[in-house]
Amino acid sequence: QVQLVESGGGLVQAGGSLRLSCVASRSIFSFNAMGWYRQAPGKQREFVADFTGEGNTNYADSVKGRFTISRDNAKNTIYLQMNSLKPEDTAVYFCNARVTLLGREFDSWGQGTQVTVSS
Question: For the chain, what percent of residues have pLDDT higher than 90?
């Protein structure tokens, strides 16, 4: 399996920005998909943004126009630039890497980083 380490979370006021980082223990070329999920207290984990295996990006409707996912292949790292943050964005953000092999999906997760947006 792969190790994923997130960083960059913190406390920010509404309207502010944060950039999350996720460093993988091996080349991100080895993953069929890689991205970000989040989980707020008392809620289910939800999709935020990811890269497909072809390198295309996808975003949840709630973050389109505000969040941008990017990657640095040489550093085995993906990022999530979060702008115009809202209190509703408060959650633990998890990095996800997915490998699809013989029709089966294998997910790896980071430990999570807390993002708190105050109003």
Answer: 91
Q: What is the pLDDT of residues 47-98, one digit of tens each?
A: 999 998 778 999 999 999 999 999 999 999 999 999 999 999 999 999 999 9
Cβ burial, residue 108 (10 Å; 0-12/13-18/19+): middle
Q: Any idea of the CA torsion for 44, 91, 58, 33, to the nearest 10 degrees?
A: -80
The single-letter code of the amino acid at 34 is M
Q: Which amino acid is at 29?
A: F
Q: What are the distances in angstroms from CA 31 to CA 9, 16, 101?
A: 24, 31, 10
Question: What secondary structure does DSSP assign to 34-68, as a single string?
Answer: EEEEEE-TTS--EEEEEE-TTS-EEE-TTTTTTEE
